[in-house]
Amino acid sequence: MTTVIWIAVVLLLIGVYLSWTAGRLDRLHARIDAARAALDAQLLRRASATLELATSGVFDPASAMVLYQAAHAARRAPEDEREVAESELSQSLRAVLGSREQLTAVSEVPGGPEAVAELAAAVRRVPMARRFHNDAVRAARALRRHRKVRWFRLAGHAPFPMAFDMDDEAPEVLAAYGNGNGTGATAAFRS
Amino acid sequence: MRIGIVCPYSWDVPGGVQFHVRDLAEHLRRLGHTVSVLAPADDGTALPPYVVSAGRAMAVPYNGSVARLSFGPLSAARVRRWVHDGDFDVLHLHEPAAPSLALLTCWVARGPIVATFHTSNPRSRAMVAAYPILQPALEKISARIAVSEYARRTLVEHLGGDAVTIPNGVDVGFFAGAEPKAEWQGSTIGFIGRIDESRKGLAVLLRAFPQILERRPETRLLVAGRGDAEEAAGLLPAALRDRVEFLGMISDEDKARLLRSVDIYAAPNLGGESFGIILVEAMSAGAPVLASDLDAFSQVLDGGTAGELFPTGDADALAAAAAELLGDPARRAALRERAARHVLRFDWSTVGSDVLAVYETVTEGASTVAPDDRISPWARLWSRGG
């Protein structure tokens, strides 16, 4: 009789442990969803700020076209082409906003400083949001590779999480523009 | 925004992390945010109104030194109550990988959690063994901040994943505006740090000092910091002892004035530094910096352009560089000018807005912080049972 009780206790403990692990995994998936939503919001914000700058008439037509195209493509890209489109937007921003003179010219027109500050804020937050997202993905993947999760299928039907891989390096002059706080100090202390 | 900050170390003991937490909390409060800091503190310590005591910290040997930490069921209950009563939008934990109050908070709370990793200990077997224990708590952190690129690298190496780099903040204006003191001026080299902690490298500076005097006989050395001055002076030939002045512990105001007065600030540290806030303070005050070429220092000095570097522990190199600098006012002026521009990125206005950007990134669309009911498998069992 005692053996039966012992077996029941052990099974109960295993069950509780597995259900706790499933809860852990559930929370990690929720963290990925939140981080992905935050990343999407910042990417969208960046593309919108770029579009606004491109159509404001402060750039020469060639620069404006490059920015407009890249931002438009980034906003419209289907899921599987998103990383490439966003990376291309980063490259375009670096190419167009490559010089301090360009930034000074933009800042002198009415509404220019606000538009640049908005873009600078978005450009600074994209790498942050991406790192937080990929960090969550890494944690979930580590747990999902564990035996207990695979054997008992604790992850259910949730897709295997994928990192968001893109070139998010900011144009240097924009990083130096600060966080929209107007100090002109360098906000970035990046790798 | 309602922000809860957890300081792992005793509020009544001065230290880098404590100062950082204090300055961050005060900066955020000035911007109009509601901030509550949870920190261990002895009963009867006078605390600022925004600090909540988590009870006394116990001295525990940890990682090669004695750490004063809070843990156990009583601390956990206090943390839980603080989290519950605070109704925070975001929690900001400091040093959560140490067995501390921050780790406890991570354990009992859920919601948007930001964590700053200050130290960069070399990878140890204990860390590797502790990893599975820490993991369920640490994986609740939505955003990690490392205080330097060096700290980020070690963090990634230890725990995997990634972090953003936001340096420690300094009130640049406070140091830049301090009044120099005449008696500390005129061919002086400054050193600030614990005298008896070999890691801070005072011995290297004292070994180099006779050589500096040979080339620049008018030089004086000003040493500020806790420790036995007699013992330290014993490292010098008796004839040179009057060239060194031990100032003991000095106030923040005097520290700023000292840094404003000296011709060189020397940082001969031997290791164990993940950031080097004192170098930023020295640069803010306009003191040309001469530092050992530790990874963290080289980073803070912008690869050696905002201050000079010498090979760590090499007294001869330190002496040569110091004598050179003392005899070259133009070079010192150039370093000052370069450093004044470089330190702006460490000013609280910049660092604070970066930290707030992190808070915004993790709180956008997320629920608020709340106590966690699923802290361990066994808690789950009890909560079901009763």
Automatic annotation (TrEMBL), chain A:
Annotated InterPro entries: LemA-like_dom_sf (IPR023353)
This protein's name: Uncharacterized conserved protein
Taxonomic source organism: Streptomyces aidingensis
From TrEMBL, chain B:
Source organism, top-level taxon: Bacteria
InterPro entries with a match to the protein in the record: Glyco_trans_4-like_N, Glycosyltransferase_grp1
PANTHER family associated with the record: SULFOQUINOVOSYL TRANSFERASE SQD2
Keywords: Glycosyltransferase, Transferase
Name of protein: Phosphatidylinositol alpha-mannosyltransferase
A Pfam match: Glyco_transf_4
Swiss-Prot/TrEMBL GO biological process terms: carbohydrate derivative biosynthetic process
CDD domains (alphabetical): GT4_PimA-like
Stretches assigned to the Glycosyltransferase subfamily 4-like N-terminal domain: 14-172
GO MF, any single term: hexosyltransferase activity
